[in-house]
Amino acid sequence: MPRTPNATVPIALLSLLLTLGQIAPLAACDIPVCEYALRYWSRSDYTVYYIHDGTEAPVDAEVNALLRHIAEGKENYANLRFVSVNATLGQASLTPEVRYVLESNREIDKPRHLLISPKGHTVFSGRLAVNDIQALISSPKTAILADMLSRGAHGVVLLLTDSDEAQNAAARETAREVVDATRGTEARMGLVEVSRQDPRELWLVRQLLAVETDLVGIRGPMVFGVYGRCHVTEPYLGKGISATNLAALAKFMNGPCTCDIKDANLGVDLISDWVWEAHASGTGAPPRPTEPGGYVTFGE
Fold first, then answer.
1. Distance (Å, whole) CA 266 – CA 20
2. CB neighbours of 6 closer than 8 A, spacing ≥ 6?
3. Cβ atoms < 10 Å from Cβ of 227
4. What does the mean pLDDT of the chain come to?
5. How many other C-beta atoms are found inside a 10 Å radius of the C-beta of residue 109?
6. Which end of the chain, N or C, is less packed with Cβ atoms under 10 Å?
7. What would the pLDDT profile of 127-181 be if each residue is shown by its tens digit?
8. What is the pLDDT of residue 272?
9. What is the distance between the alpha carbons of residues 236 and 233, in angstroms, rounded to a whole number?
10. 212 within 8 A of 243, measured Cβ to Cβ
11. pLDDT digit string (tens) for 235-280?
12. How far, in Å, CA of 252 to CA of 294, rounded?
């Protein structure tokens, strides 16, 4: 469940920190969580379900063909699946996954696209167009996140701003304080700011607000941690955006890894069109993004 504006530490993260600090880590290693995640964690897929009553609508043919192409990985590296679902088929012919999706969306108009996160949360319900797809698999700030993590950031503090500039400024100052404290240290951190009002980041914002089921209804800035292959943590909200809490987040991302951290359901992967395996193995990487604004570089 998300934190209310008066909350402090995300419950799941607090539980893990207490576990790491009070008892011997289970299957712990000397590699920090951020480094282990970058090297070894395979990304979890988002899924676009296309729900129809027997025949895909001709108007959706182009976008569905593009989604199939992306899902096959022919020209991209996005962690995105595509599943076309005939809602008129008998339940016995459907997989448990598809049965659950249909049961959870019994009353929707068809045809319809549903974008579901790896945690089973609905990111989008409606009709996708071709011009939505590139923005979905990659955005300017997602590319910056991936670049920073690939080049050695031990984590990124992601500030999601809202319409209240005073609240944004207070959260920004706190985030900068924590990130600046890592400059010149091994545990160097990055800072990326994303505006809810930026149309280029519409799909990234939707993914962030689907990390938990009821974040969409909460206003004000939010602070997430991002590490590994764009794995994002649950957010801090309101009074929870404090130097103490963000320092604890940085400590977690730089702390010892245990085999069950990802399986413990702490956060979720973002969609990224990035050659993570090349970065992790040192065999090469795409060029860095050219957009300079909206983030603080690390290690300077």
1. 14
2. 238, 239, 240
3. 29
4. 84
5. 9
6. C
7. 999 999 999 999 999 999 999 999 889 999 999 999 999 999 999 999 999 999 9
8. 96
9. 9
10. no
11. 999 999 999 999 999 999 988 876 666 666 578 999 999 998 876 6
12. 25
Place of tokens 């991302």: 253
What tokens were used for 60? 């959706």
